[in-house]
Structures are given as structure tokens and as C-alpha cells.
Fold this sequence. Notes:
Helix content is 38%, strand content 20%. The strands form seven sheets. The chain has a seven-stranded mixed β-sheet, with helices on both faces. Strands 3-2-1-6-15-14 form a six-stranded mixed β-sheet, with helices on both faces. The longest helix has 31 residues. The termini are far apart.
Amino acid sequence: MKGTDFILGVDAGSSVIKAVAFDPRGNEAIVYELPARLKRPHPLWMEQDMEEMWRDVKKCVARVARSVRQHHGNLLAIGVSSTGDGTWMIDARGRPVRNGILWCDGRAASIVNQWHAGSIAAEVFAICGTSVFTGSQAVQLAWLRQHEPSSLRNADVIFHAKDWLFYKLTGNITTDETDASLTMLRMSTRQYDAQLFKILKIGDLFDKFPPVRTTRQNTGALLPAVAQELGLPRGLPVGAGPMDVAACALGSGAIEHGEASSILGTAAIHQLIMRKPILKPSMVGMTLCHGVEKRWIRLIAAMTATPNLDWVLREVGWDGAAAGHPGSDRFYRRLEDVLREVPPGSEGVLYHPYLFPGGERGPFVKPTARASFTGLSMNHGRRHLLRAVYEGVALSMFDCYRHMPIEPTAVYLSGGGSKSSFWCQLIADCLGKPVLVPAGSQFGAKGAAMNIGASIGIYASAEDSVRKTVRWARHYAPNRKNSKIYSELYRIYKATYESQMAGWDLRAQSLNQE
């Protein structure tokens, strides 16, 4: 490692904030991370203190920079990525107006319901290709107009999480195509659209939105004071983007038409790469600009993935003897060995993984949706519940890909869930498609590093960065017998959640959560 050049990638997620040093071959050399500290001032709200987030990013960057110096390495650039959607605002002096509102926030559910019941949601989709949900910036701005008009009056700039970090690093106020495309751009032009702002009734806020740049062009130089504080070279190139899901697609190698990238983390993000924007089927998922020229992404994002497993293990538990410490690799290996003894389909137990307070957003938008087990009888036990959770997340994934405009050729799987060979094989069986797990683990930070690397000439293009940095760790071929079982189970899964929708609404009404 001594004397090696590195690109530093920052990925400020809603679970973890991390800084990662990559060599030009894409190898992860140094990683430092801190837990993201989220605020919940109300049961349906999910926020992040912007200054606290910035301090945590600085701690991560400074720690990695110090390790690079200790090994006499050389930092060439910084790439920044963070969570998409949500609302982050600063005043005329560059100070946060309020906490950042996250993508998983559920406060605007009634507005989402109104827009979908009327014409607004469909009119918006026809332009930007995104079905608005509670985390959409446009919806959150509508909520702020109703409940916190002073926040909008005080806001000088309305942008996204990575744009805030880019501003603090460089002083530049911009955004890139990936973030802005949810939900403010016309997909055919990749630019702000006056008609869209009119439909959303935010024309008066237009001047508060930052200029949109291509991801390759969205670069700046590190501020001298920040460079001194963090122990970094003055004027170090900094790139902002792509936003986290597009960065993961790039970092895992998904850049060609038909390739798919799924991230099994806090959320379940499913992305299909397209050579042109395809806005059918209508009112399903999101369409965004890829961080790659002349490429778009059709994205369908389920609200929760791995938290379903965390929840069921915490609340239901598993009493396996000598299983190892809960959360350890040994614990999961022993658990999954036991779950392999339960046949595919969990002997009729189904789990629908709609666990977050914001409900579900993919492939359907339903703020009142809630998680549930169905099909239980006295013949079932804890093992059936646990396997059903694994299968429920996989069936949700299958549901999302069934609503894509084209079929994927293969799925590149990353995120915490991809560490589980049991889950990877189950997903390949459920989808009936090959599942490939790329080498490495920090794909959001890697995508941001690859992007700034291409911007400053370390790589000739995005395609060149993939050729030079992406390798495969594992490959899972579908078991056709199991695929038939899951195809039939999916019919039941879909019919079950469709039959529950009216009940979800009644539940919300009774609890005054509508």
C-alpha cells in the first residue's frame, strides 16, 4: 500500500456514514464508518441533523486521510454520494433551515393519497417517470407549505443530502442529474421543466433550486479551510454524485441496457438500466438519469429489506444452540442451515415486508401498507416465520421486477443482504435469473469514486472504470424446480396484499394516521 494513489469515496447513508479509500483498480483499502444518527420527533417522521451529519462525514474523511498519509499514500480526489429523495434546505448564509427530511419519512401520507386520487400524480409521472411517494421532495415541499411555511420562506436553496455535503466541501451550490430527476426533471431533456413545477404548484420556489449538472461535470475544488481541518491537499478535486442508488449501480458494474442492480440494505432498491427512458408501465416506480451518459434507470424501490430480518430476530428470536453471538457470521450461517430444512414456500406461511411507517412505495404506492404474516396454523413454528421473512423480501423483489418495462438479463446484488449465500440463492430461484455478487462491499462509495475518477481522467469513461474496477465474487444460477414453486407463490403473495389494501386504510383511519 505504501506510495499508492487512492480515490476517496464518501457514502452518507441513512444507516451508516462511511469514507472509503479505493486504489485505481477499485480495491477497498481503508474504510471508516459511523452510524447515521436519525431523529424521530414524531412517529411518522424521519429526519437528520444536517450539521451533525457534516461533522460525522468530516470524522470519517479525516480518519481515512490520516491512514493514507501514514502509509505514504496519495489522495487524488474525493467522490461524494448520499441518500436520494428527501428535502435539505439552507438559508442565505448557508445554514440549515431545519433538519433534513429523509426518503423514509411518512408525514406527507395524506398529500400522497390526494395526489394519487386526483390527477397530479399521473401528470407528474407523464413528465418525470416517477410515482410520487411520501419521501418525494415535491410531496415534502407541499407538506412544508401547509405546516411550516416559514421554513420555505427562510430557504435560499432546496437540494439533496449529497448536495449539502458538496456545498460544505467546496462552497458550490449545484445538484446532479441523478438526484434532481426525482422528481424535478423531464426525462427526455434531463433538465428542470416549467410544466412540472406548475403541476406541483412550486413555481414560486423555482429560483431556490440549484443548477443541474451532469454527474461527470458536477465537480469542484476542496475549500482551503476544510482541507486544512481534514489534513487533505488544498484544491483537491471533489465530485458530487451519483446519488446513492445510481452510485451503487455504477459501482457494481450495471451500466448496459438490460443489466439490473439490486441493493438489499435498509431499503430494497431494484434498478434496471435502459438506453432510453421507458415510462411504461405507468405509475410504477421511478425513472432517473444514470450517472452514465445516455443511460437511464428504471427504479422500483421497496421501503424495507434487511430491517425485516433484524426485526423478526429481535422480536421472535431463534433458540438455536451454540449459534454464536447474534449478528455474527456464525450466527447467520447456523440459522440459515436450519432454515434450509424448511421447504421453499415455508409450508404456506407468507410474509409481506412493509415494515416502515411510510408504508410501501414499490411497486405500488401505499402509505398505509403494513407488514404481516398470513397462512399460519398450529403446524407452523419459529423456523417457518424466519424463512418466510427471507422469502417475503425476495417475493417483494420479484414483484418489483415483474413491474419493470423489460426483463433483466442478470441481477447484480449488493448491500448487507448479499452477504448471505442462502438469501442470494433464494433470490436467484425466486427471480429465475442469474444473481451475481460483485467483489467488495462499499458500492455507493465506489460509484462516487469511479465517477470523480472519470471526471479527472483516471478512467477514460464510465465504461472504462467498470472494466478496470469491477470483478465478481460469487454467482448463483436459479434452481428451476424452486423457481416454479416461487412463481406460484408469487400469485398468492400478490393476491394477498391486494386484498389487504382496504383494510390498511381502515386501520389508518381508526388510528388517525391517515
